[in-house]
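ok trying again, last paste got cut off:
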Amino acid sequence: MRRTAQAVAAAGMMGLLALSGPANSEETTPNLDRAAVEQIVRDYLLANPELMLEVQQALEAKQDALRLAAQKKTLDEQHATIYDSKYQMVIGNPQAKTTIVEFFDYNCGFCRRALADMNRILEDNDDIKFVLKEFPVLGEASLAAHRVSMSLIRNYPELYPDFHRELLGHDGRKDGDVALEIAGRLGADRQTLLDDLDNPESMAAFSEVYELADGLGVTGTPSYVIGNEVIFGAVGYDRLKPSIDKAVQ
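nice, full thing came through this time. structure:
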């Protein structure tokens, strides 16, 4: 019965196609107008609504396959940019064999929560490093804070680990003023940072990260790259640990 219904629906769809613009009118089925075909298809879908779920599942599977293919392409072709960009900063042992890449925004509450995961991972294993991708996606305040961060990276790279932890862990909205205050408290000269704030390398760095994010399917923060796996969200230490262990092997 199901196959019969599917056959009827298929015939209906073929009828719609035929009615929409046949190449040869002599080959079309007579006495079958669009309204009749649409009624056949409607009746079939109402009688078999589970078909819509099957279509949705097939669509999601196709989208997942395309996303994974794009991820693999980006991981393969942009490996050096992901792991060794001139714009990035490293927290942890620079010579570590295992790398975790994190995309973050300073105003992301989930990134703030995930800061404890990074600290714990680095405390557990001194042969792991974090490569941090500055990914301002939460408005003008975030962009301003990240511009200060990029200026600090160029002028006071040794201050970055403490700066990153303090700014990300700061209560409330982070903007350029908050970032400058924290940087100054850590020993950076405010005017030096301001003079370098409009350096075009900052926007070049952000553009590079946006392009990577697009290829990897990263649309929010935090997101991680561990080995050949892309992980979305503040999934927590217990979820990250198996992926780290796999990458270490």
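cool. Residues 80-248 form a domain with the Glutaredoxin fold (CATH 3.40.30.10). Confidence is low (pLDDT under 50) at residues 1-23.
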